Structures are given as C-alpha cells and as structure tokens.
From TrEMBL:
Family, as annotated: Belongs to the Gfo/Idh/MocA family.
Any Pfam family the entry gives: GFO_IDH_MocA_C
First-tier enzyme category under EC: oxidoreductase
Reactions catalysed according to its record: myo-inositol + NAD(+) = scyllo-inosose + NADH + H(+)
Self-association state and partner proteins as the record states: Homotetramer.
Gfo/Idh/MocA-like oxidoreductase C-terminal domain sequence ranges: 134-323
Name by which UniProt lists this protein: Inositol 2-dehydrogenase
Residue ranges annotated for the Gfo/Idh/MocA-like oxidoreductase N-terminal domain, each copy included: 2-122
Domain of life of the organism encoding this protein: Bacteria
Organism: Paractinoplanes ovalisporus
Amino acid sequence: MLRVGVIGTGMIGQDHIRRMTSVLAGVTVTAVADVNVDTAAAVGSSVGARVHESGESLILDPSVDAVVVCSWGPTHEQYVLASIAAGKPVFCEKPLATTAEACLRIVEAETAHGRRLVQVGYMRRYDTSYRALKAVLDTGQLGAPLMMHCAHRNPSVPGFYEKEMAITDTAVHEIDMVRWMFGEEITAVRVLTPRRSGNGGDLQDPLLLLFEMADGVLVDVETSVNIRYGYDIRGEIVGENGTAALGSLSPVRVRLGGQAADPVPVDWRERFLGAYDVEFQEWIDALRLDGRPVGPSAWDGYAAAVVSDAGVAALRTGERVEVALAEKPKLYDVEVPA
Ligand SMILES: NC(=O)c1ccc[n+]([C@@H]2O[C@H](COP(=O)([O-])OP(=O)(O)OC[C@H]3O[C@@H](n4cnc5c(N)ncnc54)[C@H](O)[C@@H]3O)[C@@H](O)[C@H]2O)c1
Ligand SMILES: O[C@H]1[C@H](O)[C@@H](O)[C@H](O)[C@@H](O)[C@H]1O
C-alpha cells in the first residue's frame, strides 16, 4: 500500500484525495496539510489522515511514502525541492513552478539526486480522447501532420486570474499536450488578441496563440476563459491525407423538446474525471513497482514553463518569441509511456 501525504486541500486536492480514498487501488492517504488549517482539519478528519501544520513537516512524516502537491502554483517549488531533499517521490499539480528558473532548479536537484522522483500533473496524456487521437496520428494514415487547431474554453475563472494566466495556467495544458502528441519541442510562440469579451472585465480574453513546432507543424490555441456555456476542450489534427479530432464532449446525447444535444461538462473535474483516475492509478502502480514515476517529468514541467514564458513575452510585445531550452540532462532521455 502506497502511503500518500497531500499538501493543499483546496478544490483539486480534495478531488485527488477522494479518488485516492474511494476510487483507486493500492493507495492510502495518511497525512494532509494546508495553510488554511480549518480546511486541512476538516478534510483530514473525513479520511482519517494526520493533519500537519506545514507542508515541510508532512514531507518528513515517516508515515508518508510519497507526496502530492496541490497548493497554489507559487508554492510548488518549495515543496517539490523539500520532497527531493527527503528522497521522496512527489506528484506536483501543474504548473511545476511558476518560472522557468524555478523549474530548472527542480530539474537540477532531481538530476543531482540521480533518479526520477518528480511527476507533473499534465493529465491530458491520460485522457481517453487524447490517447485515441494520438493512436490515430501514430498509425501514420493521416500522412505527415501539418497543423493542429485547439480550443480551451472555461465558463469562468476566479477573481485572482490575471491575463498572463491564460497562458501560464490554462494554455499550459496545450503546451504540454502538443509536445507529447508530436514528440517534439515548440520552437516559437506568437499571441494575437482579438476583440475583448465583455464577460471578463479588464481581462484580455480571448487569446489566440500560435506555436511553431520543430518540424514545422503549426498549432493554434484559442483560450476563452469566460465563455459561460461550459467547459469545452477541442483539438483537431490536420494531416496530408485527412484529419482527426477529439470525439464528442459527452457520453450521452439528449433528444428533448425538439432538440438533440450533447451536454457540456461544467468544469475540468467533470471533463477530465477519467483522465485524473488513470493518471493517479498509473502513478501509484509505478511507485509500487520500483519507486520511480514514469509520467510527465520535471523536464516536461520545465519545458512547458519556458514556452509559457515565451508566450507571456509574446503577449506583452506582440512579437514572435523564440523558445530556448537548456540542455536536457541524460536522466530524462528515457521515453515515457504516457
Ligand atoms: N490538472 C488540472 O487540470 C488542474 C485543475 C485545477 C487546478 N490545478 C492546479 O492545482 C493547484 C491548486 O488549484 P486549486 O484549483 O485546487 O486551488 P484552490 O485555491 O482551490 O486550492 C489551493 C489550496 O492550497 C492552499 N495553499 C496555498 N498556499 C499554501 C501553502 N504554502 N502550503 C499549503 N497549502 C497552501 C490553499 O489554502 C488552498 O486550500 C494549482 O497549481 C492549479 O493550477 C490543476
Ligand atoms: O487550473 C485550471 C486547470 O488547469 C484547468 O484544467 C484549466 O482548464 C483552467 O483554465 C485552469 O485555470
């Protein structure tokens, strides 16, 4: 049984605790921590987990074999570095850290440790639709991929959401997804700003991002984060001979009142429910096998942060910004299955 400690018991922390305590196999949640001690105490007592006053003391708890970090992005670096220092595997929700420099510090600490400990929560790699799309691409039947059209739509975002977050917090999922989908790096980013939606207040919303991939594939990503109607994630690959797109939004089609409709998910929890389950089960199984995660690595977290930073620079300047990655350490050379 893998004994897990969860730092951050907010929305996604509670959702991951629910799946680890009532859906998945081979795992138990033994400890929780949150700066909001009341939330931590309520969540901890509901699952019989010890409540720690700090993330650092949770990491050092001998009843914690592995750590899950679900606190706010700016706090990720300290907990991931403390987990590496303690030699414990750590699953960190995206983003790995909020700057490329911080991500690089994590890469360097893990490389010095000499063995992978870090996995980043890029769950799209585990989603049935994205896996099916990649399977079609990998058959080669579409011919060479030329373009991919993506849309990332949220019904609304919290008040603290700033315009850069459309890239660093939202489109960062597409950044990781296309690196995985095409098996190559993004080399340059452009950001266009259409007419502003009245639903977002002062926020520049929507954005249109353009990614150039190393072999010439061009990816466009629409981020609309106040689009009200629901949580809608789209992706279509255009190849030389045909196209392939993510399937229907919904497992059910409703015909009612003279209309036929696919219900739209309300948020990421509903849309990626199955993906999070598979992501965590595979993480748990890999750690139980030999203590080493095999999913999205600290290097993937770093690469996504560098592209995000280039996107933010492109948004500020209106220019095309090239992406410059550090040299990839050998630790990350092994192909990951997801
Ligand atoms: N993979 C996904 O699709 C996905 C979905 C949602 C959120 N996330 C990521 O998960 C993280 C949390 O998001 P959320 O929506 O649950 O936010 P949230 O605000 O609901 O929860 C975050 C929690 O972290 C706690 N916290 C803040 N600073 C802390 C610290 N220093 N130590 C311990 N706890 C601290 C807060 O008190 C809060 O309870 C973010 O990084 C976000 O980007 C990922
Ligand atoms: O933190 C959330 C989460 O990562 C969701 O998957 C994404 O759709 C949102 O835009 C983002 O704010």
